[in-house]
Every structure is written in C-alpha cells, then in structure tokens.
Amino acid sequence: MEAYETYSTPLASRYASKEMSSLFSPATRFRTWRQLWLNLALAEKQLGLPIPDDAIAQMRANLDLTPEQFAVAAEEERKRRHDVMAHVHTFGTVAPAAAGIIHLGATSCYVTDNADLIFLKQGFDHLIRSLGVLIARLADFAREHRDLPTLGFTHFQPAQLTTVGKRATLWIQELLWDLRNLRRARDDLGFRGVKGTTGTQASFLALFDGDHDKVEELDRLVTELSGFSHAYPVTGQTYSRKIDADALAPLASLGASAHKIATDIRLLANLKEVEEPFESTQIGSSAMAYKRNPMRCERVCSLARHLTVLHQNALMTASVQWFERTLDDSANRRVTLPEAFLTADIVLATLRNVSEGLVVYPRVIARRIAQELPFMATENIIMALVRAGGDRQVAHEHIRVLSHEAGRAVKEQGLENDLLERIRKDAYFEPVLGQLDALLEPTRFIGRAPEQVDRFLKEYVQPALDQDDVREAVGKAVKVELNV
C-alpha cells in the first residue's frame, strides 16, 4: 500500500478538488481493479466459461474496499511483494465463490494499465469541465471591459492602446486551444483490453480452446463494459508509454498558457492597473505591511512550470521501454500521472479564483495612458495641422522638437509628460488647439478592439461553452474559495 501514498500529497489534499483527489486515491484505484475483474468475469461467462452466478453476485457486491480489507491487502503485499496478487487474494476473501476465477487468464497489467487509462479519461473529463468554467469567467471579464482603453505593451515597453477586455481575449484564445487539446487527447484514448502477458492473448486462446473469434470478442466486450469505444489493436505486456506522453502533452501546454496569464496579471499588479483578489485581513509580507503580493498568480506560475516539465518525464519513460515491457516505468508513472492531473486541477482552480475576483483600477490606467498618449497622438496632430493648411514637414519638425524636450523632462528630471502644455504654448499650433482634446481621446486609439471582443466571444467562445459537458459545469459552478 505504501507505493500508493504518493497519490495523496499535502498539496493535493489542501488545494486539489475533491473529485480529482478522489480519482487518484487508493480507494478509487483498487475499486477500479475490482470492477475490471468483474468485467472480465462477466465477458468470460457470456462467452461460455463456467463461472457461477454467485461468483458474479459476490464480486459485484464487494467492489468497495472496507478499512479491514485495506489492512488485509497491506499485509498480503508485505508478504507477497506483489500489489496485484495481494488484491486478488483480498478480493477472494469477500467473494469466495469467485476466488478461483478472479483474474482468470489475465496479467497484472490487465488491471494496472486499464485502470490508468480509465483514470486518464476521467481526469480529462474533470479538467475539461474546470477549464470551461475558467473560460466562462474570463469571458465575463472581457465582456465587462471590452471598451476600456489601456496602454498596450510590446517588449514590456509602451506601445499603442488596446482595451482591458481585448487583452483578456488573448488569454481566452489560448485556453480555447487547450480545451480543444484536452478533448482530442481524451477522445483519442483507447483501452489496453485483454492482451495477456506479452500481448499475444495466448492465455485467453488457451481458455477458449483455440477459438480466435471468442478471444477477439472477449477483448471487445471488456472494452465496452469498461466504457471505451476501442482497444489498442496491439500491445506488449503494457500499453505503449507513448500514450502517457500524448496525455501529458496537452497538460504541459495548458501549463504554459496558465503561466503566461498569471505572469501578465503579476505585471499588471506591479503597474497597479489590475490585481488578483486580496482579502481584507490578508498579509502580503511579514516585514512590509503595505505589500499586496500576487500570491495566487505566483502559485500558478510555480505549479505551471512543474506541470510543463512532467511531460518531459513521460517522454523519457516512453523512450526507455524494452521490447514487450520493463518495470522501470512503474514507480515513475505512479507519481507522474496523478501529479500531472492534480497539478493541472490546482492550477485551473487557482486561476478561476483569480478570474472571479480580478480588480481593475480605471483611474490608474487612465493616468498611464495620459503619460504616453501625447507622444502617440503626434501624427494625428500633424495631420490636423495639414488639414488646416499647414506644411507637413514644418509641422513634423515643430512637434519633433517639442516631443524631445518633453521626453528629456520625463527621463532626466522625473517630471510628468507636458508635451500638450508645450504645444498649447506654441503659437504655431494655434489652428488646432480647439481640436486637441478630441485628438487625444483614448477611444480614438483602440481601433476595433471592442468589436473584436464581441465577435470573438460570440463566434468562438460561446460555441465552446455550449458543448454539453462545459455548459452543465458552468451552470453548476459556484464561486471558488481558496484556503490561502
């Protein structure tokens, strides 16, 4: 049993959802093994093997392990040094009529690998729902701030204006791709099925007296009973560990998206334009009482980096498998697979908490725009002068000189940007002084940002949220409260 304690880490128990923590718990793992043994027995009985009805009934009645059975299994594992056989024995003690047919014809990977595939599939189901709710929350934020001008940044240097809502759509678009990738990975998952010790199905062929059709039907029936549409056509003793790498790839990509979003919010917090939630009694620093550290987003970045590197672990494991199987994957996978899904779950829950309490400071945003917009508006002022009968080259030279003077005052003397005051005091600009306020209205510089937000939400986000599993999750979602 000790080998499975890694499924319940302190991080998972504190921050992961109950659903995801339960999925990778010992109770769920060993119940799933029992369900797989029941599915095998049902299919073998249907195809003619002499399996008593009371064996099926006893198995079905004892799928959940009691604390006493966990203790028996732990003792058996210490004695046998084999987790699967320990649980075969333990299951037989509560289903004695089935003791002789539990695991009939199977190898250990029948339960371990098929269970892992079930967990991957159900883990994806949960993450898809959770990601859908996060997208819905950010969509609300983008809609609310669709036309609020803000300074855009390229190279983290002031650039042209965008809107707070438009910036949020950049986050959402990447999350939509992650949603697509999670669905693709889930839907691509197959089942190992019943393949035997080296994947040849020799044991099952012997059970059915050489009847190849029955062996194939057994594989199909167990796959169907276990909730999969198809089994992998060929395996060794295990399903290919490349499947694990394929499953963790979209989680790593989700980690990259989450890290970018959280980093943007951390930078905006430094600018005092947008902040994550901060409780009234929350302490940002033990020494600096004024601090409002973006601890939630910092946690997202920390865990997201871990999530992205777990994919490399799966790739390395897949690359060193020998022939039909080796065992140096086992302990690694028992940590890596649950850890990846638990980490993704925590990242999504934390980001969702952030998205549900984002605070925007429009006056700070407006002040920063005012500091930079005069420089950006110089071309508009030049064009207004030309329309008033001025010479473009002369206008350009006048505004160039004033711009450099204002720039030096900002950088060398630490003063505010006073380009507009300099323009108003220069008689050359008298023909357009009455237009200056209109020429510097921020909404003139945001282009089609509000319309882009509207179209994106309608044509791309809403269809994604209208899919059944996500729509139901969004409808049931309540505000996430984190123990921070």
From TrEMBL:
Pathway: Purine metabolism; AMP biosynthesis via de novo pathway; AMP from IMP: step 2/2; Purine metabolism; IMP biosynthesis via de novo pathway; 5-amino-1-(5-phospho-D-ribosyl)imidazole-4-carboxamide from 5-amino-1-(5-phospho-D-ribosyl)imidazole-4-carboxylate: step 2/2
Family affiliation: Belongs to the lyase 1 family. Adenylosuccinate lyase subfamily.
A molecular function GO annotation: (S)-2-(5-amino-1-(5-phospho-D-ribosyl)imidazole-4-carboxamido) succinate lyase (fumarate-forming) activity
Coiled-coil regions, chain positions: none
A cellular component annotation (GO) from this entry: cytosol
Keyword annotations of the record: Lyase, Purine biosynthesis
InterPro entries linked to this entry: AdenyloSucc_lyase_C, Fumarate_lyase_CS, Fumarate_lyase_fam, Fumarate_lyase_N, L-Aspartase-like, Pur_lyase
The protein's name: Adenylosuccinate lyase
Keyword Coiled coil appears in the UniProt entry: no
Domain of life: Eukaryota
Cross-referenced PROSITE patterns: FUMARATE_LYASES
Subunit (UniProt): Homotetramer. Residues from neighboring subunits contribute catalytic and substrate-binding residues to each active site.
BP term (GO), one: 'de novo' IMP biosynthetic process
